[in-house]
Amino acid sequence: MRQIFLDTETTGLYPDQGDRVIEIGCVELVNRKLTGRTLHLYVNPQRDSHEDALRVHGITTEFLSDKPLFAAVADELLEFVSDAELIIHNAPFDLGFLNKELSLLGRPPLKDFVSGVRDTLAMAKEMFPGKRNSLDALCARLEVDNSGRTLHGALLDAELLADVYINMTRGQDALLMESATQDAPGRAVEHVDLLRLALPVISANEQELAAHAVVLAELDKSSGAKTTWRQSA
Prior knowledge:
The protein contains nine helices and five strands. The protein is an alpha/beta fold. A five-stranded mixed beta sheet has the order 3-2-1-4-5, sandwiched between helices. A hairpin with a 2-residue loop joins strand 2 (about 20-30) and strand 3 (about 35-40). The chain is elongated and about 85 Å long.
């Protein structure tokens, strides 16, 4: 299973009002293991960031002035995320901006290029109802070190999100049972015919049968002799 953790920074909150993407960070996970492959892009939005947004990410207009336009990096982004499951914290926000950027280029929405999208904010609200579920709050709750996060940064936040997600889904290792041969092509897999296995049958002894009868009698008494085994008998 290939998953891409994605985060963006933007000039503001409203893509339909002209706000634009200024930074994109992606981190690749394959079979719940970080591969080391990342994508980090700065984008010239051709406009200033709102003051509130600038306080969050600290990325100035001057810094972005020589960076490529989104049109120049769109194919690189789409190639990196192609056919993977996207995992995003508050997915509607990031998808709204990226879909707007793609629409300005006459391209289809991001969902058409990936296998699916998972929103970790929705997951966190279900797992921790009534609690703060920001990325910082989840890092603290799940003991993920975010001490280097003084300002928001797309790549750093994507890396933190990967750690948070792995901790949130720690009990779901069964997801890796797709095919062990994916990690090592050509490896021989031993198939076991379970029909040929002779399983031992161990009968209860007299003491165990007597103890079982006592339990059944107590259940029968507490139910007013309405237990299923009494009715069937």
